[in-house]
Amino acid sequence: MTLVAGLGNLELFSFLMGLSGPIFWVVQTFVGSPYGRHASASFGPPLPVKLAWSLQELPSLLVPLYVVTCTPAKHFSHWPNRILLAMFVFHYLQRALIFPFLIRGGKPVPLFIFLSAFLFCTFNGFLQSQYLSNYAEYSDNWIKDPRFIIGCAIWLMGMLINVYSDNILRNLRKPGETGYKIPRGGLFEYVTAANFSGEVIEWYGYALACWSLEGIAFALFTTFNLCVRAKYHHRWILI
């Protein structure tokens, strides 16, 4: 039996997601990271930043809602499954319905970047919610397991860092300003892209709490995707 033949559909999807992370890192290393201050017209017509951000993240809210309500969701009655999916959804509730409408200024989002993010959120929203609703079998005692407790704590710490760092970035600009400034305070005293660092920490906490291939694949993809963006931010600051 080959490795691929021995994998279920969700495991295969997770394997492909994890594998695509390094591929995206290599591609963006050569073609650039056309996002925010690095946006380029060669990646499609620009879309309004608030609308694009909200719509591209929205599938990570709507797809889990569909999975929970329109599929058997045979394991969703267990509290570990509910808590873990709530952690995933809560992040995207903030990213889709709160964060975009707090943006001050901000560069338009190229169509290609918007579509890429929209498709990823759709795919990953299905992967995580399908696993946690219909496949993951946790005992009710999982919420007492050190992996779950520590993972949830790391997830919360990462999300707080992410939200706090976004707030620092947002307040660098006065109303009407659109330029970029070097942020100070919080984790920005130690790393260039504290907001990205917070999100990476968050998803490794989620992966630990889930203790699943689906969770670690998401965390790895996020790491490769955001690290290359952070590299371009750091290079821009040095220039």
From TrEMBL:
Positions of transmembrane segments: 12-31, 83-103, 109-127, 148-165
Record's GO cellular component terms: endoplasmic reticulum membrane
Function: Converts testosterone into 5-alpha-dihydrotestosterone and progesterone or corticosterone into their corresponding 5-alpha-3-oxosteroids. It plays a central role in sexual differentiation and androgen physiology.
Keyword check for Transmembrane helix: yes
Catalytic activity field: a 3-oxo-5alpha-steroid + NADP(+) = a 3-oxo-Delta(4)-steroid + NADPH + H(+); 17beta-hydroxy-5alpha-androstan-3-one + NADP(+) = testosterone + NADPH + H(+); 5alpha-pregnane-3,20-dione + NADP(+) = progesterone + NADPH + H(+); androst-4-ene-3,17-dione + NADPH + H(+) = 5alpha-androstan-3,17-dione + NADP(+)
Domain 3-oxo-5-alpha-steroid 4-dehydrogenase C-terminal: 108-237
Keywords, alphabetical: Differentiation, Endoplasmic reticulum, Lipid metabolism, Membrane, Microsome, NADP, Oxidoreductase, Sexual differentiation, Transmembrane, Transmembrane helix
Subcellular location: Endoplasmic reticulum membrane; Microsome membrane
Family statement drawn from the similarity comment of this UniProt entry: Belongs to the steroid 5-alpha reductase family.
Gene Ontology molecular functions: 3-oxo-5-alpha-steroid 4-dehydrogenase (NADP+) activity
GO annotation (BP), single: androgen biosynthetic process
Its membrane topology: Multi-pass membrane protein
Assigned EC number: 1.3.1.22
Domain of life of the source: Eukaryota
InterPro entries: 3-oxo-5-alpha-steroid_4-DH (IPR016636), 3-oxo-5_a-steroid_4-DH_C (IPR001104), SRD5A/TECR (IPR039357)
Pfam families xref list: Steroid_dh
Designated name of the protein: 3-oxo-5-alpha-steroid 4-dehydrogenase
PROSITE patterns: S5A_REDUCTASE
